[in-house]
Amino acid sequence: MLRAFDHDWDFFRECVTIFKEEYPAMLRSIREKVAAGDATGVRQTAHALRGMVGNFQATQVARTAQALEEMGLRNELNRAESTWNCLESEVVGLEQMLEKLIREEMG
């Protein structure tokens, strides 16, 4: 994963900080857009989140975000709530893993 950041720990930590600041609002937005039936909004926000987690090479999280993005594209949100639940869990797990990497680097 650090190769993607050219082994630059400062840049990595900065990206993690931005991720931690931005992902909660993105998840909340997706959930609200799913509840409102806003397929375009789901697609756009899931796409942005997919790009963000892609920076960390979080393939499974990116796939789940892409699934939501595709549901929005097809205007088929009937499974979006359960997919969002998976995405939330995966993103929280990613945050924990990133924090662990930083702690290990600093320790």
TrEMBL record:
It comes from Desulfonema ishimotonii. The modification Phosphohistidine is found at residue 47. This is HPt domain-containing protein. Residues 8-107 form the HPt domain. InterPro entries: HPT_dom_sf (IPR036641), Sig_transdc_His_kin_Hpt_dom (IPR008207). GO terms for molecular function: protein kinase activity. Keywords: Phosphoprotein. GO terms for biological process: phosphorelay signal transduction system.
